[in-house]
Design brief:
- It is built from five helices and 24 strands.
- The strands form five sheets. Strands 8, 9, 10, 11, 12, 13 and 14 form a seven-stranded mixed β-sheet that branches.
- The chain is globular and about 65 Å long.
- The protein is an alpha+beta fold.
- A hairpin with a 2-residue loop joins β8 and β9.
- It folds into three domains: 73 residues; 162 residues, D-amino Acid Aminotransferase, Chain A, domain 1 (2-Layer Sandwich), CATH 3.30.470; 83 residues, Nucleic acid-binding proteins (OB fold (Dihydrolipoamide Acetyltransferase, E2P), Beta Barrel), CATH 2.40.50.140.
C-alpha cells in the first residue's frame, strides 16, 4: 500500500540538463467528504505552467495516493529530482477547456515608421509588452477563473488565484501572465458593471485604485501618456531588451477581437516572434517544417525550425511560437528561426503571413 500523505500534499520536481530547466508538480487535493483528486502542472521554470487533472471525479485516498506515487516515480525515472524549492500550486477543474464566450481585444502590429508619430501624440499611451501568456481572470464571489485568449477556462497559478480572490469586489481583469504574476492592464467588469464601453484611460484609472500596491502576484502595467514620458520609457525599454511596446488609444472603448488593420491598440516588437503551424517532421532530424496561412486561406511553407532537446517534437497541425530575424519576401521563409515552445491558446487560422517582418530585397537591375 502506498504511504499515506497529508491533505493537499504537493511534490515539485525539477529537471536541469544543458539548456533544459523544467518543472513538474503533482498534488493530492482533499475534497472531503467527496474524496480526493490528483492534479499536475508542468513546463519551463519561470513560465506559467500548463495544468491538468488525473481524476475527473474524487476518489478514495488509497487510489489517489497510488496515482500520485506513480506520477512521481515516472518522472524520477526520466531524470527528474524532487525539489526543495517551493512550487506554486495549480488547481485545474473539470471545467477547464469550456468556452466562456468572453473574448479579449487583440493587438495589431505596426511598422517602426509609425512609432515616432505614436510616441509624440497625446492620444495614445505607451506600455511594456510583457513576454508571457494572455490571461483574463474572473472573480465571481468565491470563484476565481482563468480565461485564455481563445475564451477557454484554464488553470491558474495559486498565487494569482489567491491574489484575485482577495480583491474587494467581483471583477474581470485582462492581462499577461508571466510565471506566477499577472501583469494586469485592463479592467472589463467591476462590481457587476460592464466597463467595456468606457474610455481606456478611465478603465485603467479604476484598475489602479482597485489593485493592491506591490502585490508580487498581481501587478498593474505602468503606463506613460505624456509624450516626453513616452519617449523616455521607449528608450529605457528598448535598452533593457524587453519583447516590445504597446500603444493604446486612451479614449477608446474595449472592442473584442482584432480589426483588419490599425485599431485602437497596437504593438511594436523589438524582437520578432510569430505563431506558426507545425508541418511534417523532417526524418532523422529534430526539426519540423513551418507553415502559415496566406491571403487566400491556404497553408504555405515558411521554412524549417530545429526543436531543442528540452522540448518535445511538436505534433503536425499544432501551433508553435518562433523567434526569427526576418522573413524573405520571395520565398516566405523565416531566417534564423528559434523554437520557443507550443501555443495551445492560438488557433491555426490565426497563423497568418501578415505576422511576419520581411527583409527589404534589393531591386533587380
Amino acid at each position: 500500500m502506498p504511504p499515506s500523505s497529508p491533505p493537499n500534499q504537493t511534490t515539485t520536481l525539477h529537471f536541469r540538463e544543458g539548456r533544459s530547466d523544467k518543472v513538474y508538480q503533482a498534488t493530492i487535493e482533499d475534497h472531503s467528504p467527496d474524496g480526493f483528486t490528483v492534479t499536475f502542472a508542468y513546463g519551463r521554470r519561470g513560465t506559467t505552467l500548463k495544468a491538468g487533472i488525473k481524476t475527473l471525479t474524487p476518489t478514495t485516498r488509497e487510489k489517489a495516493s497510488a496515482i500520485f506515487n506513480k506520477l512521481i516515480a515516472s518522472k524520477q525515472a526520466k531524470g527528474y529530482q524532487i525539489s526543495s524549492e517551493p512550487g506554486s500550486d495549480y488547481h485545474p477543474s473539470p471545467q477547464d477547456g469550456r468556452d466562456t464566450g468572453i473574448r479579449p481585444q487583440l493587438l495589431n502590429p505596426i511598422d517602426e515608421s509609425e512609432v515616432g508619430r505614436l510616441l509624440t501624440d497625446t492620444r495614445h499611451c505607451l506600455q511594456e509588452k510583457h513576454d508571457g501568456r494572455r490571461l483574463m481572470v474572473s472573480k465571481r464571489g468565491s470563484e476565481v477563473t482563468g480565461i485564455n485568449r481563445r475564451g477557454l477556462i484554464v488553470a491558474l497559478p495559486e498565487p494569482i488565484r489567491q491574489a484575485v480572490s482577495e480583491l474587494s469586489c467581483d471583477v474581470l481583469l485582462d492581462g499577461e501572465a508571466v510565471g506566477d504574476t499577472l501583469h494586469a492592464f485592463d479592467l472589463l467588469e467591476a462590481e457587476g458593471e460592464d466597463l467595456r464601453p468606457r474610455r481606456y484611460i478611465d478603465r485603467h484609472s479604476t484598475l489602479l485604485m482597485l489593485l493592491p500596491l506591490g502585490h508580487p502576484a498581481l501587478l498593474w502595467v505602468s503606463t506613460a501618456i505624456d509624450p516626453n514620458d513616452k519617449v523616455e520609457t521607449y528608450e529605457e525599454l528598448r535598452a533593457l531588451g524587453v519583447e516590445g511596446i504597446v500603444f493604446k488609444d486612451i479614449n477608446a472603448p474595449y472592442s473584442p477581437g482584432r480589426p483588419n488593420t490599425g485599431g485602437p491598440q497596437m504593438k511594436f516588437k523589438f524582437v520578432e516572434t510569430a505563431s506558426f503551424i507545425v508541418g511534417p517532421a523532417n526524418p532523422g532530424r529534430r526539426s519540423v517544417a513551418l507553415e502559415l496561412v496566406n491571403g487566400s486561406g491556404q497553408r504555405t511553407p515558411a521554412g524549417n525550425v530545429t526543436v531543442p532537446p528540452n522540448h518535445a517534437i511538436p505534433q503536425m497541425g499544432t501551433v508553435a511560437e518562433i523567434r526569427y530575424l526576418y522573413a524573405h519576401q520571395q520565398s516566405g521563409s523565416v531566417y534564423q528561426p528559434v523554437y520557443l515552445g507550443p501555443r495551445d491558446d492560438i488557433p491555426a487560422e490565426d497563423c497568418t503571413i501578415d505576422q511576419l517582418k520581411f527583409k527589404q530585397e534589393a531591386p533587380t537591375l
